[in-house]
């Protein structure tokens, strides 16, 4: 696997399909055994995600972001009985290789095709998948459902082990072409969004949506409810992660630029010093913090702070999210987090 990238390990136990499975590191004497706890569901256990597939007899172990400390010898095992277990030993090496791009952003117009280049060693099989999916995808005619995060990398297989090293993260953005309609017709404004915002309320506005005097067209859509006014219908399809506004009986005054905006977000920041807590927006951490003092602390009535001193965590709440809020933020104390 590659430093900072993702890695999937599939450990096959075909003769013990329904028995509880685990993975552990031999350097700590296998004292901490990671197992899903629940079968046939993805579960997080520390810094890995696990899935015990009882139909195939496979334990899937997903390292979300490989660290140098993850390297070592592991046992991928199954508890056969109270006194007996069976395991396969594997060696995990974590490499640093600058020739493989870690993150790529691609953009494609709705209805067109997109080519994504994936560099992997020639002797390995290519593996290409979309985040939150467990199967290989092939993009043909780009639709709003294709937007999201993809991974590509190399797949190798041993007798009872499969390694999928996902070394490149690809963010695919869908560009919506201009909507051209005649007066009296209807128009659909389609807004795909990241799946993490499924449960967030959404609204549609026209013109300068990033200002206080923005023209909000209707009440906010919450959950899967559909809201209607005289000429406007808003619908949030959380399954497809697509927010749609339909305007009927178009007039010349309807022409213009429309924006989709969410509601609010909470960001948790760890800190080590009670006296130095900062949160700021900038491209580099040095712009925000110097010698532990924030130089560009955001001051806005939409931003509020709450602190849980005992846990070493403070929370930043941003309400009334606007397009201008997009960007890179830094938070923390002497050690900042991007």
From TrEMBL:
Gene3D superfamilies named among the record's database cross-references: Immunoglobulins (2.60.40.10)
Domain Ig-like, residue spans: 1-88
Cleavable signal peptide: none
Pfam families: V-set
InterPro entries: CD300_family_receptors, Ig-like_dom, Ig-like_dom_sf, Ig-like_fold, Ig_sub, Ig_V-set
GO CC aspect terms: membrane
Keyword terms, alphabetized: Membrane, Transmembrane
Subcellular location: Membrane
UniProt protein name: Ig-like domain-containing protein
Species this protein is from: Cirrhinus mrigala (Mrigala)
């Amino acid at each position: 696997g590659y430093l900072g990238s993702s890695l999937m390990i599939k450990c096959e136990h075909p003769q013990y399909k329904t028995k509880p499975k685990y993975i552990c590191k031999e350097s700590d004497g296998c004292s901490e055994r990671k197992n899903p706890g629940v079968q046939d569901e993805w579960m997080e256990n520390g810094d890995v995600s696990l899935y015990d597939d009882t139909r195939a007899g496979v334990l899937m172990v997903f390292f979300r972001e490989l660290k140098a400390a993850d390297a070592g010898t592991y046992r991928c095992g199954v508890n056969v009985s109270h006194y007996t277990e069976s395991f396969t030993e594997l060696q995990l090496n974590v490499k640093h290789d600058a020739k493989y791009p870690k993150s790529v952003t691609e953009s494609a117009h709705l209805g067109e095709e997109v080519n994504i280049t994936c560099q992997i060693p020639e002797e390995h099989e290519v593996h290409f998948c979309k985040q939150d999916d467990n199967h290989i995808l092939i993009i043909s005619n780009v639709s709003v459902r294709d937007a999201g995060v993809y991974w590509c990398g190399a797949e190798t297989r041993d007798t009872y082990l499969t390694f999928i090293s996902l070394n490149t993260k690809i963010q695919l953005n869908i560009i919506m072409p201009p909507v051209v309609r005649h007066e009296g017709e209807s128009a659909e404004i389609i807004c795909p969004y990241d799946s993490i915002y499924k449960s967030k309320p959404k609204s549609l506005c026209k013109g300068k949506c990033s200002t206080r005097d923005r023209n909000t067209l209707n009440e906010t859509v919450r959950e899967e409810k559909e809201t209607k006014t005289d000429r406007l219908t808003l619908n949030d399809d959380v399954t497809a992660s697509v927010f749609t506004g339909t305007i009927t009986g178009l007039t010349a005054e309807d022409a213009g630029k429309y924006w989709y905006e969410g509601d609010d977000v909470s960001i948790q920041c760890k800190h080590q010093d009670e006296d130095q807590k900062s949160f700021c927006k900038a491209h580099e951490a040095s712009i925000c913090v110097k010698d532990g003092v924030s130089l560009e602390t955001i001051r806005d009535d939409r931003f509020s702070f709450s602190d849980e001193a005992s846990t070493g965590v403070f929370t930043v709440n941003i309400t009334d999210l606007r397009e201008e809020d997009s960007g890179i933020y830094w938070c923390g104390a002497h050690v900042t987090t991007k």
